[in-house]
Structure formats: C-alpha cells, structure tokens
Predict the 3D structure of the following.
Amino acid sequence: MLSVGKSLDEKFTSFKQKGSFDGSRKDINAAIDRISEFTGTKIIFWDLREPFIENLYKPTVSQSRMESLIEPLDNELNQLCSIIVEPLRDRIVTSLLQASMDGLLRVLLDGGSSRVFFVADTKLLEEDLEILKEFFISGGDGLPRGVVENHVARARHVIKLHSYETRELIDDLKSASGLERQSVGGSLGADTQTLLRILCHRSDTEASQFLKKQFKIPKSSG
C-alpha cells in the first residue's frame, strides 16, 4: 500500500508541475505577443512617424511614394533581427507588418485635410501596396505569402474604394446608412465610416457639397 500511495503522490506532483508549466508557457507567449505588438507599433508610429505617418502621400501621391520608406524600414528590420532569437523572428516581423498596414490605413483614411486622393491615384496606391507586400515576403526569405496577403487584405479593399467615382461612393454611403428611403445596404462592401472618410479625402465639388449638406463637414483645405 505504501508503494502505491507513493506512486500516486508522484503522479499528482507531476501533474501539478505540468499544469504549472503549461500556465507559464501561456503567460510567456502572451508576453511575447505584447512585446512584438509594441515593437512593431513603436517602429511605425514613433521611429518612422515623420516619413510614414506624417509625410507619405504629401503633397500628392505621385510626389511621395512608398518606395522612399523601404530603406528606412529595412534598416529598422535589420536592427531588429540582429538582436532577436531566430524562433521569434516571424512573430516580430508579422507584428511589424501589421503595424505597417495600420499606418497605411491611417494615412488613407485619417490623413487629415492636407491629404487628398483622386481616382487616378489608385494605380499608384496599388503599386505601393505591392511594394510593401513584397518587402515582407522578401523573395521567399521573409514571411509566407499567404500570411502577408491576409494582412494586406483590408488595405487592398480601401485602395479599391478609392478607385470609385465620387457619385458611386455617395450613392453607396446613402444606401448603407439609410439616407435613402428604400435603402437595401451598400454594394461596395464597406462600412459607412470608411466610405465617409474616403469622401472626406476626395477633393472635388460633389464630395464637398454632399458632406456639407448631409454631415455639416466643411470643405477640405487640402
């Protein structure tokens, strides 16, 4: 009986230790995720704030392209990869990719009155997104293509919305927000806030008049 009791005690102790280690692993993984997220956000919104968040696409898209950001972004990434262990590389780089997409969406949707976009800019915006995407894929040496594609999907959709004429955006916003009596929802696959923000960055008379009439938003000074 003594040996049986001892065996049960050993198994119970082993089980408790395993549970403790499992909990520790979860805490460590959660901490790594938070540090990775912070690192990516710091690089884009602090270290590269001036060239990326403040100056990209100013004064126009054609005069400030994504290509100018690749070298400083590459420098930051190289410094990062030189101090992190290999098993954590993809997690850190993925966080930087996500922060880059957040930064790009900030520029496209919340860039302020000094940023305006035209339908003709869409091709340049698509090219820039491709440049940023390929930077993170790095010819197969970076993140898996599928992972990168998933992260750029929303930015790609927002850029697609920029390709629509102002009248199409207004009609879709009216439909999606119930401004029309027989509203059936928008057909462009965008929420009302996204459509509204795109119209706020559209520098033409039709957009300005609509925003002033429906939302009391003054004409952009850009």
In short: The chain has a mean pLDDT of 86. The CA atoms of residues 8 and 14 lie 10 Å apart.
